[in-house]
Amino acid sequence: MQRYIPLIARAFLSAIFLKSAFDKITDFAGTQKYMAQNGIPLQLTGLLLVGAIAFELLGGLSVLIGYKARWGSLLLILFLIPATLIFHTNFAERMQVIQFMKNLAIFGGLLMVYYYGSGPISLDEKT
User: Fold this and answer.
1) Which residues span the membrane (predicted)?
2) CA-CA distance, 87 to 69, in Å (whole number)?
3) Residues 48 and 84: beta-carbon distance below 8 Å
């Protein structure tokens, strides 16, 4: 059973990023509007949104399949830092505190992937 735990953990970690990327792709304009409402200049939202989608897809898939998972976890950490600081620091709102804490937990999981690697059931272990 212990062979499967890193795979299951990677699947859970990557799910939030892959779902988020899908949501951004399917509601690109709505996401741009949300970004602008949170202080991102409207002229930059398109470029930043494409970058966010790329980081979430590449990092999420990398962690999920365990191919270059350490690099994938770093991509997701690099995405998560500004996303957390820009969108989840209004601690007067309970939901934003929850989102901030959730992101801290995700940071922890990604740091574990970075430190320990992807585990025995992964493409990294096959190469």
Assistant:
1) 47-67, 74-91, 97-117
2) 26
3) no
**Six-digit token string for 97:** 């505190």
pLDDT digits (tens, 9 = 90+) for 65-78: 999 999 999 999 99
Residue 69 φ then ψ, to 5°: -60, -30
Taking the model in full, what pTM does it have?
0.92
Residue 44: partners with Cβ closer than 8 Å, 6 or more residues away: none
- Specify the residue for token string 């989840």: 88
7-11 CB contacts, 8 Å cutoff, 24+ apart: 7/66, 7/119, 7/121, 7/122, 9/109, 9/112, 9/113, 10/63, 10/64, 10/66, 10/69, 10/113, 10/118, 10/119, 10/122, 11/64
CA–CA separation, 24 and 29 (whole Å): 9
Name residue, tokens 């799910």: 15
Task: Say if residues 120 and 3 touch (Cβ distance below 8 Å).
Answer: yes
* AA letter at 1: M
